[in-house]
């Protein structure tokens, strides 16, 4: 009886998320070896506000098997154009211990400190609004092996900081200090000779 009730609760959450335009992979009828369904990924690109996103993220945390979370908006061309913010990271930290991938591209996050203890293999922060003095928080996410980074697209005057030499230098310093990092996929960034020398131990992949 308890197993059936648990399965019904999962099904109800799955339906609520679909009604809220949350993209969920997996279905309640496809069971794993534990006789429970598995939902490998969730994406919140169609949400309309930070409140809606955070509410749906708390709901999604009930679903078993989530390994990938995409918090980026439908278009990531605008820096900080998405609804996810630092409070969203707090929800992730409180409900998940490890993920294969977390996409924070185009979001309003200002720091990565809330997820320092989260085990993540792949992290995407393209066109996010991480503050210069908070870039060092990247160093403490030791599990990340693949990082996607860069700033481009429909920038506003207030976004000039993300294209400055000083900001890029802080990015390089943070990358050099990430112990588990192996590959950096970067958009619209031009590293100096000296900066490349700091990152010789990394596989730098320019994405066009």
Write the SSE topology.
Elements: H1 2-19, E1 23-24, E2 41-43, H2 50-60, E3 68-70, H3 86-95, E4 98-103, E5 119-124, E6 146-150, H4 165-176, E7 183-187, H5 193-198, E8 203-206
* Order of SSEs: HEEHEHEEEHEHE
Tally of helical runs: 5
Mean of pLDDT: 91
Characterize the quaternary organization of these chains. single chain
Unreliable spans are none
Helical amount: 25-40%
Count of extended strands: 8
Q: What structural class do the secondary elements suggest?
A: alpha/beta
Principal-axis shape: elongated
Strand order of the largest sheet: 1-2-3-4-5-6-7-8
CA distance, first residue to last residue? 54 Å
What does this structure look like?
The chain is α/β, with parallel strands linked by helices and 208 residues long. It is built from five helices and eight strands, in the order αββαβαβββαβαβ. Strands 1-2-3-4-5-6-7-8 form an eight-stranded mixed β-sheet, covered by helices on one side. Helix 2 (50-60) packs parallel to helix 3. The radius of gyration is 18 Å and the shape is elongated. The mean pLDDT is 91.
